[in-house]
Structures are given as C-alpha cells and as structure tokens.
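W.,

You were right to be curious about this one. When I first looked at the sequence I had no strong expectations either way, so I just let the prediction run and decided to look at it fresh. Below is the sequence, 472 residues in total, followed by the output.
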Amino acid sequence: MAVTEPAAAVLTAAHEGILRRQSLRESSARTYARSLPIVPVRARGLTIEGADGRRYLDCLSGAGTLALGHNHPVVLEAVKKVLDSGAPLHVLDLATPVKDAFTTELFETLPRELADHARVQFCGPAGTDAVEAALKLVRTATGRSGLLAFTGAYHGMTAGALDASGGAQDVRVTRLPYPYDYRCPFGAGGERGAELSARWTENLLDDPKSGVTSPAGMILEPVQGEGGVIPAPDDWMRRMRRITADRSIPLIADEVQTGVGRTGTFWAVEHSGIVPDVMVMSKAIGGSLPLAVVVYRDDLDAWEPGSHAGTFRGNQLAMAAGAATLAYVRENRLAERAAVLGARMTGRLQGLAADHPCIGDVRGRGLMIGVELVDPEADPDGAGRRTGREDGVRTSTGVPPAAPALAAAVQQECLERGLIVELGGRHSSVVRLLPPLTLTDEQATAVLDRLADALSAAERSPYRRQQTGLSN
C-alpha cells in the first residue's frame, strides 16, 4: 500500500529527528552512521526498511556478520527456542546444552586435521577480543613476544589487535609485505610479486642482524577485507605455512570476516589447503549476534585456569543462532553457491571496466568482492594530472592513483538508489560488496544494476567534477 504524503512527512520527520539526536549524543568515533544516514526499523534477507519508509538492498551485511541475511527463519527459530525453554541467558563459561551443540557444529566445519586436535576458547563479544586472545595464547605457549603481521591488515580496534593492523607502531610487530597484485609493493605483481614477498619474509627471519623480535606467531587474513578485498594467492599461503612450520612459529588465520562460506569455501584457508595452528572467528559464527572464539591446536593450550576470561563469553542466544547458521550454510552448500554467484558477479563487474575507465581493478573471492576506483586521467608515474590538479592519491606502482572522492560519491549514489555498500582499501577507494550468502540470481542482478547506474551518475556528477577538476 502506498504511503500518503502526510504519512510520508511524518516518517521523514521521525527519521531526521533520530539522526539529529544521534549526532548530538553519540561519540565522534561513529563510522557507518556518517556515510549511511539511515534508520533501520525492519529487515528481512537482503532488504532493510528505514524509518522514512525507504527500502534498501543491504550489501554491507553487518560488515559480513549476516551470512544468512537479516532475520533468517532458522536463526529466529533457534533464538525463540532458547527463550521459550527458560534456559539461562547468561552463564559465564559454564557448560550448557546450547554451548555443546554450537561447539559440536563448529568442529564439524573445521579442517579435519585441526578439528581432531583442537581446543576452543570463548573470548567475548567481538572479533578483536578473539584476536587479543590468540596473540596472548601464542605468546604464552612460545615464551616469545614478537609478532609477524602484514601491511594492509586489519584485526580489530583493541590495543593488541591494532598493533597487528597496518599502521601500528609497536616495536615487537614486524610488518611484512602482503601480496597486492594491482599495487604490488615490488612493482612486479602476479606470481613474481608473491615470490618476492615470501623471500622478503624468509630473509628477515633468517638474518641474525634483521632486528626482528623473536616471533611468537604470524597473523594473516586469507583475504584482506578492510585492506581492500585482496585475496592472498594460494601458493603464497602455502609458502607462509611452510615458513612458519619450519621455524616453529604458530600461524594464526584471522577468519573473522572470511569465514562461514563467505569466500566460496567454508573457511578461506581451505582454498590453499593449509591448516593453521590457530583460527580466529567471529561475525557470522554468531548468526548475527555477538560471539567470538579462538580454535587452536591442543599442544598450544598452555594457559593456566583464569589466564584469559571475559564476562560475556557465554552468550546463549548467539550460540544458538550461530549453531543454526553454521548448520544451514553447511547443509545447503552455501559456500559453493557463493563461489559460483561471486564469480558471475565479478565477471560482470570486470565487464563494466570497458565503459568505466575509473574501474582500476575488480577482485575478491566468493561473495567478498571489491571494486578499486582510480583516476584514469592521472599520470601513473606521478608527473601530475593533465588537468593540472592533484586530487588522486599517489602511489608508486605504475597504475593510476586511487580515487577516494569518486568512491565516496559512488557510495552516496548507491544509497540514493537503495543500495548499501561499504568502502575500504588503503585509500578508501574500494567499493566493497558483502551480500548475504542467500542472495538470489535476481537480487544479484538488481545489486549490480544499481551499482552500475550509481557509478555512471558519480562519474558525471558536479560533485565529482568539483573534486577532480574534470571538465564537462
């Protein structure tokens, strides 16, 4: 039923009032609310309805948390069952039937070699808590303090997780080059770039004068998410596994965003066939509710009782929703579906590049997709724009500079067309798509149609010309 003009005015006023009060009351640290000024009131699957009555296709999915989309029936039923049972909702780390069922389902999805010799630590509500636990675990088990991490990484917002992320200053963290084919730090790209990255790592670890603090572990993302949706080459992943195993360095795979079918396999490490020593998990494992765990080899379990704890590590509703989500993804082969549909979407996006030279690169795995936007009129060697302005973000990789202003314009044009997308990458110039794994073919087409239209609009908008100095 159509909304009448008076009713629409009331909805708009309520919507604007909520946003205004948020800006007055909440911290300046808020992020998504700045670029996505919507007020969700209802949601189902891919669709969000705002307080102003508008509907949106949600390709942010709670930053990858909603593997099954919003309010999936199996998740709602699992939560309702716990609520109706009278079971306690807060139990610290006590054993419960709900927790036992979640752990059993989780272990069913793990690489067999790890599952047969694994322990699980329930860490608290967020992925950053699990990262902290993983770093503390390997430091306790090895007696070392150093850490190997990668450029472009993002592991969370708490102190230790930030230290492991790109841009940190902790002297115990050795920063290693992550293979980035489009903007290879060695100017090589492809297999050669990945090989140089591996050699760099080996040389630092084996050079007694390198100054590397003896590493307790190496932490990496099989696909860098916030870093710009950059998949690690499978051969490089296997090389990192050999490098760490040969030197008795525990390998930590951060699967917070890549796990639960997102990349086309249940866990992203399965693409390369490696078995890490530690896996960090959150987001989708809670079925949209807060849950974070670390799974690790039992011989690393050197903690004394109480060495790592957290009040909210026994979230029964999240465990019930998580178990239902894990089972649904596994039983319905949604990882395989993500691989097929993701390849189809990536192919169409690559096809758009012929008509949109601002598309520098399209990449991803499964339904974790990134479109890097660039300034095609800039000199890739850094000699300056033909228009005489310097608005693009310079790099030294021989490719056009990043175009964060254009990416921001595309995000806003998408929102105007009822499509929610995220930005990421080194310069916030990568448009990111993280749709639910339940995405249909028709919905995928609608998403790409809206994105293509938004891209065209952003390219010709006065805002875009003002930001870049482009002429009509």
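Here's what jumped out at me. DSSP finds 15 helices and 17 strands in the chain. And, maybe more interesting for your project: The chain has two domains: 5-64+334-362+383-401+420-468, 111-314.

Coffee later to discuss?

I.
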